[in-house]
């Protein structure tokens, strides 16, 4: 569990849902109105000051842990809530005070206060314990997330789940595992979308931004790039770029910007050192005769803008290439 989230969890205030003391209810109401405390889920509160060190996604993870660990729900977490605990990247992340949990049977989909129960054929299949809470295992979590989510979010989740760079000791997940779970649970609604994402997924994408960029490149009709292209320089240095279009000798990099701010991701380097190294990498790529295209989160959020970036860079359209090949025959 994230250290900041664990520290905040220890400061939660658990109150009986049906408290008999009216003075307590009045005190809670006044404290919430003043902004002194925040309600995470029904019956569980926290001082606002305890949330100050947390990013928005940490607050949502705290909400999930509080509901599960403090006895607010007694069913396994699933969907987005389980994904948060596993650390699955969630594109277009929702900030809603709702916790997802499995229902008791196949007609149990319902909303009870701030808990959304999802109907299931089996509420005990593919269920494990992680960080003290009961939840669906990673293959089931990704499968159920996939049948309810957008194509790009599902691809990013699958890419992350099957990535070869998983931490030592973490469970190994494959595309076949995810597909097998979907089959065993009889997932029907949204299954075609999940299958499309499973076919498109590629664990070589090393960040959710790279996954989203791949989806947009495909949906906008551009030629698919090679992933994690390796450059070997004359001085012996070896490095990789996120994308490369061999047909036009163009490398591509997604820049999430986080590495410039988060010290743990910089490996002890200053932000200035990271910027310098990025510039040196770009110069090295250009020295091979290849060009360099960079994109950031804001580019991906605007499909038209991202398409224009690819167009200006000269990335060929898939349809154009197919027509040329057809005429050649």
**Integer tally of domains:** 3
Strand content: 15-25%
Give the overall shape, derived from the CA principal axes. globular
| Helix-strand string | HEHEEHHEEEEEHHHHHEEEHHEHHH
Mean pLDDT: 84
| Termini separation | 58 Å
Strand order across the biggest sheet? 9-10-11-12
Topology:
Elements: H1 3-9, E1 13-14, H2 22-34, E2 37-41, E3 44-47, H3 56-69, H4 79-86, E4 99-102, E5 110-112, E6 115-118, E7 127-130, E8 133-136, H5 138-146, H6 151-162, H7 175-184, H8 191-200, H9 208-219, E9 226-232, E10 238-245, E11 250-254, H10 258-261, H11 271-287, E12 291-295, H12 297-301, H13 303-313, H14 318-328
Parallel strand pairs: 4-6, 11-12
Antiparallel strand pairs: 1-3, 2-3, 5-6, 7-8, 9-10, 10-11
Helix pairs in contact: 1-3, 3-4, 4-5, 5-6, 5-7, 6-8, 6-9
Describe the structure.
The protein is an alpha+beta fold. The chain folds into 3 domains: 1-71, no CATH class; 73-203, no CATH class; 209-328, VSR Endonuclease (Endonuclease, Chain A), CATH 3.40.960.10. It has helices at residues 3-9, 22-34, 56-69, 79-86, 138-146, 151-162, 175-184, 191-200, 208-219, 258-261, 271-287, 297-301, 303-313, 318-328, and strands at 13-14, 37-41, 44-47, 99-102, 110-112, 115-118, 127-130, 133-136, 226-232, 238-245, 250-254, 291-295. The strands form 4 sheets. Strands 9-10-11-12 form a 4-stranded mixed beta sheet, with helices on both faces. The chain has a 3-stranded antiparallel beta sheet with strand order 1-3-2. Strand 9 (226-232) and strand 10 (238-245) form a beta hairpin. The protein starts with a helix and ends with a helix.
């Amino acid at each position: 569990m994230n250290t900041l989230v664990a520290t905040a969890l220890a400061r939660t205030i658990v109150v009986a849902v049906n408290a008999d003391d009216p003075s307590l209810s009045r005190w809670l109401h006044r404290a919430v109105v003043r902004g002194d405390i925040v309600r995470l889920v029904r019956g569980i509160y926290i001082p606002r000051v305890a949330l100050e060190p947390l990013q928005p996604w940490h607050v949502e993870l705290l909400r999930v842990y509080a509901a599960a660990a403090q006895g607010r729900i007694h069913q396994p977490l699933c969907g987005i809530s389980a994904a948060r605990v596993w650390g699955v990247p969630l594109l277009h992340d929702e900030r809603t005070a709702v916790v997802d949990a499995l229902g008791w049977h196949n007609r149990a989909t319902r909303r009870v206060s701030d808990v959304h129960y999802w109907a299931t054929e089996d509420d005990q299949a593919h269920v494990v314990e992680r960080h003290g809470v009961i939840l669906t295992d990673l293959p089931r979590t990704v499968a159920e997330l996939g049948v309810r989510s957008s194509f790009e979010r599902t691809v990013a989740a699958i890419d992350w789940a099957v990535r070869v760079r998983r931490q030592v000791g973490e469970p190994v997940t494959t595309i076949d595992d995810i597909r097998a779970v979907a089959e065993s649970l009889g997932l029907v609604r949204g299954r075609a979308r999940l299958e499309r994402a499973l076919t498109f997924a590629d664990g070589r994408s090393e960040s959710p931004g790279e996954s989203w960029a791949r989806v947009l490149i495909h949906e906008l009709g551009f030629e698919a790039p090679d992933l994690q292209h390796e450059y070997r320089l004359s001085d012996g240095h070896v490095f990789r770029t996120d994308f490369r279009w061999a047909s036009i000798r163009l490398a591509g990099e997604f820049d999430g910007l986080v590495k410039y701010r988060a010290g743990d991701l910089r490996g002890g380097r200053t932000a200035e050192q990271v910027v310098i190294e990025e510039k040196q990498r770009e110069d090295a790529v250009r020295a091979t005769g290849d060009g360099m295209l960079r994109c950031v989160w804001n580019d991906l959020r605007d499909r038209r803008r991202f398409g224009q970036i690819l167009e200006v860079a000269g990335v060929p359209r898939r349809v154009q290439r197919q027509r040329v090949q057809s005429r050649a025959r």
